Amino acid sequence: MDQRTIIVTGASGGIGEAAARMLAQTGDRIVVIGRSAKRTHAVAADIGADCFVADFLSLEQVHVLAAALKETYPKIDVLVNNAGAIMGRRGLTEDGHEKTFQVNHLAPYLLTRLLENVLLASHTKIINTSSVAHQIYARLDIDDLESAQKYSSNRAYGNAKLANILFTKELHHRFNTRGLSAAACHPGGVATNFSAGSRSYLRFIYGSGMRSYMLTPAQGAQTLVWLAIGEPGLDWSSGGYYAKSRKARTSRQAKDPELARQLWQRSEEMVSTWLP
Predict the structure, then answer these.
(1) Would you give per-residue pLDDT tens digits along the chain (276 residues)?
(2) Active site positions, annotated
(3) C-alpha angle with apex 261: 259 to 264, nearest 5 degrees?
(4) What 8-state DSSP symbol labels residue 236?
(5) Quick one: how far is CA 170 from the chain centroid?
(6) What are the CA-CA distances from residue 222 to residues 1, 196, 242, 244 (Å)?
(7) DSSP 170-208
(8) d(CA 271, CA 59)
(9) Other CB atoms within 10 Å distance of the CB of residue 118
(10) Contact predicate 257/169, CB 8 Å
(11) Sign of the CA dihedral 25, 26, 27, 28?
(12) Which residues contact 154 (CB under 8 A, 6 or more apart)?
């Protein structure tokens, strides 16, 4: 089998790093992308991977990243949109977007769209890291995607994770007949530091003795890795949402095709400056 090119964002720590390390054992070319230059380079050097540094709080950096990826890799077999975070108080990025929404949804949406031609030509598998938080906290208002009217850390994060699933479904709807496959996954309750900077009560769980009862990053990465190395149509179905390496339930909003279409349109409008 030819060596595949597998790109993993948010790979400088946590689930993304664990997934990159596991995928490196396949002998494929792994590309790790992270926000911390020091940590990203260290992970890449340790597993013999390529690496790029980009902060998803900046859409300009996403644009530069996409250009570099297109120039370096004429074929991309797997794109793992894993970068994400839960924030504290509501704040805006340099692009004027709510931080949680941009990091978790808008930036990966833009990256995927900028790579669209390569992904379609490559018949790429796109894996989007979502969360069960979409069932617990999400109340997505298409007219208030950036939580300007009503904000809480949990709700903003839940809405962003719901957006990941809706994005997955719309990718399937628009491009599956052209060879692209997409899936979203929930990694489980993983002991990482992703919520450390937030005001959510989740930071107390992740920073307490409860961590000993949570999954390790390697355990949390298993479904993501299973999707990345599996075959759509054989091992999993494009457009689906998975947990524990099997299809999982979603919220009612996650099943709404019109909401998925509207989210795509609104997201496109938000990043139109950066699209060709």
Answers:
(1) 689 999 999 999 999 999 999 999 999 999 999 999 999 999 999 999 999 999 999 999 999 999 999 999 999 999 999 999 999 899 999 999 999 999 999 999 999 999 999 999 999 999 999 999 999 999 999 999 999 998 999 999 999 999 999 999 999 999 999 999 999 999 976 544 444 454 444 444 344 443 344 478 788 889 999 999 999 999 999 999 999 999 999 999 999 999 999 999 999 999 999 999
(2) 157
(3) 105
(4) B
(5) 15
(6) 22, 23, 11, 8
(7) HHHHHHGGGT-EEEEEE--SB--STTTTS-STHHHHHTS
(8) 8
(9) 17
(10) yes
(11) negative
(12) 86, 133, 136, 137, 200, 201, 202
Distance (Å, whole) CA 2 – CA 99: 39
Task: Give the residue carrying structure tokens 């340790």.
Answer: 46
DSSP 132: T
Q: Which two tokens stand for residue 146?
A: 């950036």
Residue owning tokens 């617990």: 136
Q: Which residues contact 25 (CB under 8 A, 6 or more apart)?
A: none
Type of residue at 90: R
